[in-house]
């Protein structure tokens, strides 16, 4: 869920991210991971934006990940292979506070190879950074503040001043979802208008994803119940698996229980 929200913000408010992470108010367009792919890329966690001169690679992480340094080096080489003339800025942004050593790693080092990248820990960043542009507002609650509720209140005030309803609803929904990392749901609901959030494409997408997951889980449960009934009738495990679509291992587990 958090990956989806952050990707949505980076892709739809690219100019705000360019000003923050590149220090330049330049136009960025989405770069498809498929353009770089010799082997599959974890596109769910990868945000690539480009201009004529620069590629911005951003990864948002909720939890520490030991694989980040290698992944950053790997992506850097892939981009160089495809765009050797472009400079590249790579940033890992950690959303949730952690004392793990992994969130302080900024390099990948093996024999005769060293690669550096930037790490931003949101809980160390000044709140003011995120109150300056619409696309960064949702991150304010995760910033360096002792009063998360007050920060969300400031965000809500800023959201009310956004003139375009579509942008307003998308920012409100994104702010609510990210605030869920540090604030209770009742606080978020009190400060952010539910009617605006429900109009957001990111909100509707997550709701749709949840409904689809619920349907899949319901179908799985139905298949398991049918399999149990078949097993009670003495049908062979292989036949039950074939008729219900369940894995043989899953059917064998039902026999045990």
How would the blueprint of this fold be written?
Elements: H1 2-12, H2 14-21, E1 29-30, E2 47-50, E3 54-61, H3 68-82, E4 87-94, E5 107-110, E6 113-116, E7 118-121, H4 148-160, H5 165-179, H6 185-191, H7 194-197, H8 201-232, H9 237-244, H10 248-256
Parallel strand pairs: 3-4, 4-7
Antiparallel strand pairs: 1-2, 2-3, 5-6
Mean residue pLDDT: 85
The total count of helices amounts to 10
Strand ordering within the main sheet: 1-2-3-4-7
Number of strands: 7
Q: Please give the share of residues in helix.
A: 40-55%
Helix and strand pattern:
HHEEEHEEEEHHHHHHH
Could you give a short account of the major beta sheet? 5 strands, mixed
- Please give the radius of gyration in angstroms: 23 Å
Distance between the termini: 33 Å
User: Which percent range describes the beta-strand content?
Assistant: 5-15%
Low-pLDDT runs:
none
The coarse overall form would be: globular
Query: Which structural class best describes the helix and strand composition?
Result: alpha/beta
Could you name the key traits of this structure?
257 residues, alpha/beta, five-stranded mixed beta sheet, two-stranded antiparallel sheet, 7 strands, 13% strand
């Amino acid at each position: 869920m958090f990956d989806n929200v952050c990707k949505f913000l980076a892709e739809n408010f690219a100019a705000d991210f360019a000003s923050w992470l590149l220090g330049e108010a330049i136009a960025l367009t989405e770069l498809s991971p498929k353009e770089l792919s010799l082997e599959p890329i974890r596109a769910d966690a990868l945000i690539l934006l480009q201009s004529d001169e620069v590629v911005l690679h951003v990864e948002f992480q909720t939890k520490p990940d030991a694989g980040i340094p290698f992944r950053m080096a790997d992506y850097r080489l892939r981009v160089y292979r495809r765009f050797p003339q472009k400079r590249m800025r790579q940033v890992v942004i950690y959303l949730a506070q952690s004392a793990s050593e992994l969130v302080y790693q900024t390099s990948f080092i093996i024999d005769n190879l060293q690669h550096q990248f930037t790490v931003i820990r949101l809980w160390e960043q000044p709140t003011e950074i995120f109150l300056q542009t619409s696309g960064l507002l949702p991150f304010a609650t995760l910033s360096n503040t002792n009063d998360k509720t007050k920060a969300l209140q400031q965000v809500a005030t800023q959201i009310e001043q956004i003139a375009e309803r579509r942008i307003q609803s998308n920012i409100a929904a994104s702010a609510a979802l990210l605030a869920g990392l540090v604030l209770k749901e009742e606080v978020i609901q009190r400060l952010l208008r539910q009617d605006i959030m429900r109009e957001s494409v990111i909100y509707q997408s997550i709701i749709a994803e949840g409904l689809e997951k619920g349907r899949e889980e319901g179908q799985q449960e139905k298949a398991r119940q049918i399999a149990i009934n078949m097993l009670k009738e003495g049908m062979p495990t292989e036949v039950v698996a074939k008729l219900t679509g369940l894995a043989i291992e899953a059917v064998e587990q039902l026999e045990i229980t």
